[in-house]
Predict the 3D structure of the following.
Amino acid sequence: MCILQNLIMKVCLLLNGGLTKTKLELVTGGTASTMKLKVYDNKNNFLCDIDNDTALLGSYPIDDGMRIHVIDKFVLVHDFDHTDSAERFKLSEEEYEKKGDTLRSFLQKNKLGKYNAEEMAKMKEQQEKELEEEAKLAESVLVGARCEVRVPSQPSRRATVRYNGPLEGTKGLWIGVQYDEPRGKNDGSVNGKRYFTCPPKYGGFVKPGYVTVGDFPEESFDLEDEI
């Protein structure tokens, strides 16, 4: 019988840090070999899967306030002396439907979650509205323009717009920028796919609402004045 164990974690993300499933074993109690990681934004919208075990967290379009959803699938097998008489418990979809004391029946009876048609319709309408507003914001962000990136709980960063559009495996639109300083998370690529090219740690992808286009000249840094 396959059991789906959903463990939700709100993680304070280190922008340049790495993330390994081994580290998550200590938090979730799950097993790295059976984990699946999904990223959701602060509005509970699915963004992407973290499916490259060798990639750093910075190679994904993740910002503070987002959450990593850990799904751990494992199989329970009761085996007696490893013989042909091994007992395996399986429950078909039809048998599960006949049971009256399941989580699914409780949700259906009380019209909760995905079984609340009215609530799901409102959620879908809200998500579509947010995507429309995001598209309007993205229209004014032209590739090549100077901008300032203002992500909540982070210092503002000046940059040049290098990309405007969707990212494979994510929802909505993203703005790819090349920062004036090495304060980014990547080199213009996400999960192995390249969208623009810049030096390592100078690139980043943020939502259109965090980008302000304007006359933002590149700041000069006099290293001789520093010790």
Observations:
- The radius of gyration is 23 Å.
- Residues 1-18, 75-83 have pLDDT under 50 and may be disordered.
